[in-house]
Each structure stands twice: as C-alpha cells, then as structure tokens.
Structure to design on (741 residues):
C-alpha cells in the first residue's frame, strides 16, 4: 500500500525504538493525545519497543469516549422520534446511554443509519423530504470541517429537514486541563497529526512555553509515533520545550486555512462537558446563532435535557491518564466490549478496548502486580460498579 | 482561562440489557454465539446440533451423510465477482466440504420482493445454476415465496446441501493438537470488502472482487493418504479468519499463534480497510479455507493446495500451541504480539 507500508517498515521501527532507548537517561512520561495513536501503540506493541525509556499515558483524544452521557441521551431521544432519521458515524452506535444504546433503538424501530460522511447525511435528507435527518456531529477539530461543510451546504441548498446534534470538542483546552491537574504526570505530548492538519500548531506554542512541555505534532503510523517519541525525548533530555512537527507530510504551521475558515464561520467556542474530565470552559464547538435552524437541540427543544454522570466507574481516571485500563477493578470482568460500563471500552480508539482486545495475555500477569499500585491511586468508591444490574 | 476538573472518578454508563434482536446478532461474533447458546440450543439442543460444526453428520441406513443449510441476504444481490445465486451455492457446498463431505444435492428456497425485475432474477438464477453445474451438484428441490415491496432487499435465498462423507477425511473443530500447522489457502477479506465497496460506492485503482468460489476441488486435493493428517477445516465467512480461529482454539483447547507476515491481503482490499477503519482479520471470505494439519504432513498439504489456482497463494500462517489456550495471538510484522479476540458484534467504522 503506497504511503503506508513505508511507515510500517519493521527495520526502521526497531531502529527508532533503539534510538529512543539510547537517548533516554531516565523514564520520561509522555501522553499521546489521540485515540488513533493509542490504537497503533497498543496494537503494534510500540510501548514494548521503547522499554523503560518512555511511559506512554493514553490521552482523552477519543471522541466516542469523551462525548458526555447527556449528548448520548439526546441522541437516543432523537433516534426514537418516528419523524427522524438519525445518522451517525459507526462508532457511536454502541455507546451506552442512560438506559439503552443506538443499536437497541434501531432494533426497536428507530431509523438509525451509519454514514461515513456528514455530506451523506445531508444527501439522506434531500432524498427523504418527509423525514427530518439529524446527524450526530461529534469529534475533535478533525471532523469539524466536514461537519461545518454539511451545515453550510444545507443552508446554501435551502434544505429544511436537516440538522446536527453537536458535541464537538477541541484539543488545546483538554491539554491545559490535564497539565493544570494537581496530580499531573505528563512531561510531554504527542499532538494529533490530523487535528493539526486542520488547525496547524500555533495554538500549542503558548502551551509549550507556559507549561514548559515539549509538544510534538505526530502522525499515526508506527514510524511516525516512534519518531514523535524520539523528538519529545530529545527535547526533554536537552531541557527544551518547543512545538515540533514530526508529521511534515501533512501538517503546516497555519494548518489548512480554507478548512479553518469554514469551521470558524459555522462554529463558535462553547463550554463543554467531557465525559470523565468534567466541564472545561470554551473547550467545545457549537453552532453560531445564525445557524440555529440547523441545530437539532433548538429544533427539538432539547436544551433542557440534563443528565448527571453517575460516578460509578474509573473511566475518568483512565481518560486523564491517572490509571492504566487494566488497573481498573472492572476491567475485563464486569466491563467488556460486549457489555461496556464506560465509553473507553466501546470505541476501538478507547484505551480500555485497545488493552482488552490486544493485550489479554500481558494483562493477566500485570493485573495482579498493578493492582497494588493502582489501589493507592484509586481515590474512592470501593465497589466501582456496585448496584449494577 | 482555567479548567475545572471534576472530583473523583467519573464514568458513565449503566449496563444495558439487550431485550431484542440486533444486527450484531448476525455478525458471527460473540453476540451470534450467545444467541445460539442462550436461545436456539436451549430449545433445539441435541448431540448433533451441539457440536456446532459447519455441517451436521447424521446417520442414515448404511452409513452417514452430511447436511448443512445457509441463508443469503447479501445486498447488493449482484457484486463484482459473483451474485447472491452463486454465493448461495458456494456457501453451502463449502460448509459441507469443511466436514470433508462430497456435496451431492442442494435445495433452493427463494424469498422474492414484489417488484424485483425478472431480468435481475434471471441473471441470479442462471448464475446459481452455473455454479451448481460446475460443482457437479444437482438442485433437486426448492420453494418460492413473494413478500410485499419493502419487506426484502430484492431477494433472499436459502440453500440446504447434502453430501456423502469421506471415509477418511473427517476434520473436526475440536481435533486440533498443539504443534498442528495452520494453512490458509488464499488472500483475506476480499468478499467482505467487495460488498462494502459496492455498497458505499468506493472506487479504487483496481476493482475489489469477491473471492466467492467452490472450495470442493481444493478439499479434494487433501483426500486420500493425506486425509488423516487434516485435523480441522473452516471457511472463514462472516466474522473472518479471526472468528473462525477463535472458535477452533476454544473447541480444541489450544492456543493459536498467527503470523501477520504470512497473511496475504491484496493492496486494494488493505486500502479499503484502512479507509473504512476495518480490520481485515474480521472481514468475510467466501472462497478461502483455513486448515490445521499434522506438522509432519504440512509441507505436503501446502504443496497440494498451491497446485490449484484457488490455492496459489496458500501459506503456512500459524501454529497451534499449548500456551494461551482459547486465545488467538498474532505475531505482528514488527515482531510484537497481540491478542486477536472475537468481536462482540459487527465491526463499527471509526470516526477518524
């Protein structure tokens, strides 16, 4: 496969692992922000290649995992409306809401469709003029331009039966929230290459300077991630804290200006709840008032739906990098991909699912060792899933 | 600007009780297995059915026969590399072949949707007839029902096959021993990705064609003196190679170590999987078999498979081991190891 195989070459990957081990004089703690990178690291065993040189903490960059329960419940309400066709990316279908998930709503007769692009959802609206099509606009800055484009096109074409349920989040405020936490352990970041392809990296420069952390814009293939680690470790060893770009084949400092412009025209910064992290001011994207006609929350009067997140499992600590997935007492026993307790077990990008799917053997051994360490870090809730049916 | 972090552990989601059929129950993954175990076997359970083999082996006067049935609901009904008609013949014949049986007769039951053009039906049935003729089996009984428009995707087909058992070639999913060698007869994921590409309107430099094919000629090469060495065979249809190997690992009480470098995935198929965020190990095949063979006969079996066009790309793709019983572990191209578990339901395309 052109443009992919080159970045998976075993000899190069092993060579990079070697260089990282040689470069590090101690163990450095890095966070990869994006769930796609988590997936590559765990699936390909990259963390094993670097030995003690780097401890990777898996960041909150899985859009499925951080979408708050409240937005999931709104999605379920909309999907149950007989006048609505609810269109979503596939990942969101199995995320449990308060009492069911989108797959179950579909089994009960709700019209739930998996689409690969928000423009396909708009097309669905045009083909079904007697129905209202709602698209679940989730994701980081990566998916924002396409979602903005769907809304923009809908207005341009005068499509009245189309709206979006927005749950967009942005990366830089989450990074600050992690760095501001009193128990933060992160010493450097691998920033998400696709987010920066859209947004560039100017927003990260003040973070690197203020918090004195290296931030390396990094791609998604094994050589990308290891090269990102190498750049971050080199900075840490040399006492530098800069923004560097590993993903040069895709990312420019200013990002992709037409995409950014479109996002800014359609969306504005809003406060947003992050599942497992809590409310972060100005960390999400919401539709601008002039696009209110395309906001499903206005069209269906859902603004008042309020759902409290039950404090029952440890996904919050996993998403903040405080707990490894297998250190959670429910991991692999009460919480599995078939019966997820928390969103990180649902999406293939979720850290818990990545460990469950790819690491069963190691986990069997590590669990007992890790349990002691983890129990001192688990702050409360003796029985994390107590009272579950 | 400062952010507030919530106090203490937060996470969501109550356990969700599944009270009706979902698409995932038809995926060939854990949900399918649970439905089979918790509902069908509960009511129908008997010794023959409980073996859960690709085909049932039942006694008749003077011997035993193999019986298998399968329904086909593929959409679109015509796709690059086949139609629902030929697929319905290959699918059932392959299930018989995986038990070592020699297929003889087929039934065909059609559920037709009101409004289906005769021209399309004719093409599908002609394709089905050709596939049966090539395989040397007779379609000897059938049924036709018509449902209202909107109640079916054009047409559904069920086929049931009857085959004669080979006196020696009797592979069983629970007969694999540690040390047995895994042969995979061809490239992965072609059927599933051909269907996905057709459904999603994805175009690649080279068209992705389904591998739909009758595996009987390939199995015939393993008969005779080699037959006692063939421990287990599966055609990894829905759920892909990963699910088939997990089932064998569980039935036989062995671990399976799979070698990523030995699995062939054609370029356009790999590209389509990347684009859609799918793992080819879980994507359906319709003209490929996986066989566990006694170690001393593995090279010979491989050579025989490679002598046939369907097996030209056959490889030794793994080995059964005594460790990690019930688990399939993949040695990646990078040399690391990861578990290849059964999926709960359908693979869900990722957001980004």
């Amino acid at each position: 496969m052109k443009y992919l195989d080159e970045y998976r070459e075993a000899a190069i990957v092993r060579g990079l692992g070697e260089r990282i081990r040689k470069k590090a004089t101690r163990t450095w703690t890095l966070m990869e922000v994006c769930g796609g990178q988590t997936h590559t690291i765990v699936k390909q065993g990259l963390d094993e290649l670097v030995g003690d040189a780097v401890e990777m903490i898996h960041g909150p960059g899985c859009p499925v995992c951080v979408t708050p329960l409240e937005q999931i419940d709104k999605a379920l309400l909309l999907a149950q409306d007989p006048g609505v066709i609810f269109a979503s990316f596939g990942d969101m279908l199995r995320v449990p809401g308060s009492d069911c998930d989108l797959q179950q709503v579909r089994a009960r007769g709700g019209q739930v469709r998996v689409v690969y692009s928000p423009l396909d959802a708009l097309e669905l609206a045009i083909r079904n003029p007697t129905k209202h099509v709602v698209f679940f606009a989730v994701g980081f800055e990566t998916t924002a331009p396409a979602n903005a484009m769907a809304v923009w096109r809908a207005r341009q074409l005068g499509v009245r039966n189309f709206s979006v349920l927005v749950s967009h989040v942005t990366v830089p405020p989450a990074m600050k929230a992690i760095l501001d936490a009193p128990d933060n352990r992160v010493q450097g970041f691998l920033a998400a290459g696709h987010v920066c392809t859209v947004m560039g990296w100017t927003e990260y420069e003040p973070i690197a300077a203020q918090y004195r952390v290296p931030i390396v814009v990094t791609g998604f293939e094994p050589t990308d991630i290891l090269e990102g680690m190498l750049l971050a470790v080199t900075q840490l060893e040399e006492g530098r804290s800069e923004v560097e770009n590993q993903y040069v084949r895709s990312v420019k400092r200013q990002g992709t200006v037409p995409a950014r412009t479109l996002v800014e025209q359609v969306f504005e910064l809003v406060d947003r709840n992050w599942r497992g992290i809590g409310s972060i001011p100005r960390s999400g994207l919401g539709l601008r008032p002039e696009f209110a006609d395309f906001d499903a929350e206005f069209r269906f009067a859902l603004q008042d739906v309020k759902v409290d997140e039950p404090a029952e499992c440890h996904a919050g600590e996993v998403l903040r990098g405080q707990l490894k997935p297998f250190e959670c007492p429910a991991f692999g026993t009460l919480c599995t991909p078939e019966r997820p307790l928390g969103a990180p077990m649902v999406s293939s990008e979720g850290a818990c699912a990545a460990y469950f799917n790819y690491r069963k053997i190691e986990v069997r051994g590590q669990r007992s060792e890790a349990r002691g360490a983890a129990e001192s870090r688990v702050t409360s809730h003796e029985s994390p899933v107590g009272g579950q049916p | 600007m400062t952010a507030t972090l919530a106090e203490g552990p937060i996470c969501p989601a109550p356990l969700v009780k599944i009270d009706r059929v979902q698409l995932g129950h038809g995926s060939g993954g854990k949900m399918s297995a649970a439905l089979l175990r918790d509902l069908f076997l509960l009511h129908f359970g008997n010794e023959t059915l409980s073996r859960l083999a690709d085909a049932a082996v039942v006694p008749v006067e003077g011997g035993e026969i193999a019986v298998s049935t399968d329904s086909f609901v593929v959409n679109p009904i015509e796709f690059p590399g086949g139609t629902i008609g030929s697929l319905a013949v290959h699918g059932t014949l392959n299930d018989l072949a995986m038990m070592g049986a020699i297929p003889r007769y087929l039934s065909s039951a059609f559920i037709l949707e009101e409004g289906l053009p005769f021209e399309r039906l004719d093409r599908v049935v002609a394709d089905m007839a050709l596939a049966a003729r090539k395989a040397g089996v007779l379609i000897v009984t059938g049924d036709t029902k018509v449902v209202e428009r909107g109640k079916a995707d054009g047409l559904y087909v069920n086929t049931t096959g009857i085959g004669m058992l080979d006196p020696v070639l009797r592979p069983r999913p629970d007969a694999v021993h540690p040390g047995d060698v895994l042969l995979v007869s061809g490239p992965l994921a072609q059927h599933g990705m051909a269907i996905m590409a057709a459904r999603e309107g994805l175009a690649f430099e080279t068209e992705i064609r389904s591998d739909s094919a009758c595996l009987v000629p390939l199995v015939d090469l393993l008969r005779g003196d080699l037959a006692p060495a063939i421990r287990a065979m599966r055609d990894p249809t829905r759920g892909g190679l990963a699910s088939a190997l997990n089932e064998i690992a569980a039935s036989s009480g062995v671990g399976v170590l799979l070698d990523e470098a030995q699995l062939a995935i054609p370029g356009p198929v790999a590209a389509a999987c990347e684009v859609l965020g799918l793992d080819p190990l879980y994507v359906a095949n319709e003209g490929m078999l996986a066989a566990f063979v006694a170690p001393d006969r593995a090279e010979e079996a491989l050579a025989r498979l490679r002598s046939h066009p369907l097996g030209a790309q056959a490889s030794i793709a793994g080995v059964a081991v005594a460790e990690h019983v019930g688990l399939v572990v993949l040695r990646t191209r990078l040399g690391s190891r990861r578990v290849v578990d059964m999926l709960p339901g359908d693979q869900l395309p990722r957001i980004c």
Summary: Chain B has a mean pLDDT of 91. The CA atoms of residues 202 and 272 of chain B lie 8 Å apart.
